[in-house]
Structures are given as structure tokens and as C-alpha cells.
Amino acid sequence: MLPFASYFEQYVPSAIRVTHEHDIVPHLPPYFFFLPHLTYHHFPREVWEHDVDGNTTFRVCDGSGEDPDCCRSVFALFLSASDHLTYMGVEIAADDWSTCRIVMAQSVERPQLYLKSNVITWKNPVDIIIADHSVQTDPSSSS
Length: 143
Prior knowledge:
The chain is built from two helices and seven strands. It has helices at 3-11, 109-112; strands at residues 17-20, 46-52, 55-60, 86-87, 90-91, 101-105, 127-131.
């Protein structure tokens, strides 16, 4: 495993990466199978959502992070930005950048400090929210 994948695995060991059909984003930056130690590498545990005979199927991929039978099986000419906008039948969109949030559990609060480094950048600012799972909220109650 390469440095990013190893680091992520160390601090977020139970993370699952869900990919959708022909989504182009998991292929950026590109992965070069003939240069595996010199290319970007995803962290393990991918679940690939794709269509099989008209039915949505979820495939649990191998632990490599680059399973050739999952999203890596999609030929480059068939990659799609539109498949990045819908996951599990839910359209992923925001009206504007002010509604975008990154939500993390308290167990990953320490790596949050690294989000202010020059490694991760955004064109527009994004709020980072640390979720406190000990506080339960009742969505049916009004304040």
C-alpha cells in the first residue's frame, strides 16, 4: 500500500469507499497497473454499485483498493461525470457551495488538523463538522 492509503487505513480503519457504475472521479488521478508503486492508490474496502441486467448490484471488492473486477474494470472511454452525481438512487447535489459539509466522527478528529495543510485544497471553503454520536436528536421534535 502506498503512503496515502497506508495513512488513511491507519487513522480511519473501518472506512468503506463506495463507487458508482462509470463514475470518473475514482479514476482521477489515473492508476497505471504497470507502475503500481509510482501511481495513486486508493485505500482498501471498495463497494462498487453497478447495473447487472437492469438491477442495481453492490459488489464487495477485494482488499487491494484497486480491484480489477470493480470500478477499475470500466474502460476509460466509458467513464462518466453524470454517474458521480447519483449514488444509491440519491441525487448528490447542492444549491451552492455554502451548503456543502464534510461530516466526520470524533474518532477522526486528529486527522482533521491535516485538512488545513497544502495537501487537500478546495476551490471554495467547506465546513468540517465533527459528529458527536453520544448526542441523540429526535427529528420529529421541533425547537
